[in-house]
Amino acid sequence: MSEPRVLICGSIAFDTIMVFEDRFRNHILPEKTHMLNVAFTVLEMRREFGGCAGNIGYNLKLLGGAPVVMASIGDDGQPYRARLAGFGIDDAHVRTMPGTFTAQAFITTDLDDNQITAFHPGAMGLSHRIGVGEAADVRLGIIAPDGRDGMLAHAAQLHAAGIPFIFDPGQAMPLFNGDELRRMVDWADYLAVNDYEGELLQERTGMSRAELAGKVRAMIVTLGADGSRIVAGEEGVRDPRGEAEGRRRPHRLRRRLSRGPALRDRARLGLAPDRAAGLAAGLDQGGAPRRPEPPLRSRVGRRALPRRIRRGALVGAAGRRRMAARSALRCPRRDLRANPRPRWSAVSG
Question: What are the DSSP calls for 165-213, one per residue?
Answer without folding.
Answer: EEE--GGGGGGS-HHHHHHHHHH-SEEEEEHHHHHHHHHHHT--HHHHH
